Structure formats: structure tokens, C-alpha cells
Amino acid sequence: METLTDQNSVHPSEITKPLLKKTTHEEGIPSTSNYAVALKPPTILSPCANRYGNPEVKARFSIHNGMPAVIFRTSDYYGVMAEEWRLTIVGKFLRTRPQMEKIRSKFVEKITVKGNVKIGVYDYRTVILDFSNEDEWKSVWYRISIEIEGQLMWLEKWTPNFKPEEDSPVVPVWVLLSELPFHCHTWHYVKKIVSPIGAPLSMDLATDHKTRPSIAKVRVEVDLTKPKLTLLENSPMATQGKPFQ
């Protein structure tokens, strides 16, 4: 039985966002003007709160290529259904992977984590790493690979389109912004500049601490299947509100 997404369904980017947003460190203030809501303490969810899935997700049964099929809405399949697995990394070996006990023990030796990490087997050369801490998930993904028992385990960000026989086109890369005006070496401004390239992830320590005025270094998540933007040029229009083009 196949699992398909409904081509006529709403794309995740078209989902209407709620009017009330969580307070973020960057914005500094709650997005709602309701004083009672602003003072309400944050809700802490159990790590297992979503283990049974979202009951609001619906599916319909159909026939696809002569076979029974289950069809989910695109917005559900790539949205709420994938949310539980967003802190997941795929580890791939070029040859038959080492034994799982050795993979787990070597991972603990090489990587220090404070949260929970579950490492499970997918097939003879692929494992799945599921993290409970987002910062630790990022830190491991940024490493690109880990050597285990003389083999490199290549690390990929999991996506709903994951297939073990295909390499993920989504990778973290460093973007260098040479001669970026020093007053732009701030996360809010830098992420606006690099957003045409991909999803901004973080700045390096020198940029964050403003100890290297000549260049800003930003890590960006890019999709290698999309057209590549190779140049961000400092423009004389900076004083008119268009810093880079």
C-alpha cells in the first residue's frame, strides 16, 4: 500500500499562520497586546506529547496505479506529521555499517550531549539519529561526518522525502560576506542579507562577538538542487535602504 500526498491540497507555505505568536528573543516582546496572555508562563510539553500523532490529521483511501493507496493532505504530510521528526539526522556509511553497539558507543565517545539521542538501524548501511535538544542536533549535523570504526558516517538532515538510496541535497554551508559594513554584523541584519541564498542558521563566534570587522561568516542551509547565488555585492544604495543586491 502506498502513502501519497494530495496534489490538490494546500502546500505548507500556504497554511494560514495563527494570529498569536510566541515571544522570541529577537523580537523581545510578546506579539499579542493581551496583558494576561503576556504574563502567562510558557507551557512545557512532554517529549512524548506527540508520540501518537495529531488526531486532526485526516487520510482518504484511493486507488493509485491499480493499487490501494492512502492519501494525506500535503500540508499535513510535510507539516504536522513531520514535526515530530524535525530533530532527526540520517547517518550513512559507504559500505556495510559497523555493529549498532559499536556505533552507539563510539558516538558517545566522540560527541558530548546533554539531551537524549536515540540511534536506530534503518538498513545495512544507514542509521537514524533522533535528538531531543535542537542545539545538539544542529551541532552534530554541522559536523558533516563522524569517523566510526575506520569508516565515515556521513550526516544528512532528515526530510519527509528521505530515501536511503539518495543523498539529501539540503546541506549547511558557510557564506563569507567580505567588507560587510561593521554595523551590519548583527544576526538580525545578517540573516536578511543571506536569506536569498538559503535559510540562515548561525554566525561564527568572531562575527557574533564582533572581533573580525573585515568579514562576516554565516552558516546557511542551502538546497543544492536550486539555482545557486554566488555573489552578494555591496551596493552604494546602502544609505537608501537597499544594503545588498
TrEMBL record:
Residues 1-24 are annotated as: Disordered. InterPro entries: At4g02000-like (IPR040256), DUF4283 (IPR025558). Pfam families: DUF4283. Residues 82-166 form the DUF4283 domain. Residues 1-11 have a biased composition (Polar residues). PANTHER family: GLYCINE-RICH CELL WALL STRUCTURAL PROTEIN 1.8-LIKE (PTHR31286), ZINC FINGER, CCHC-TYPE (PTHR31286:SF164). This is DUF4283 domain-containing protein. It comes from Nicotiana attenuata.
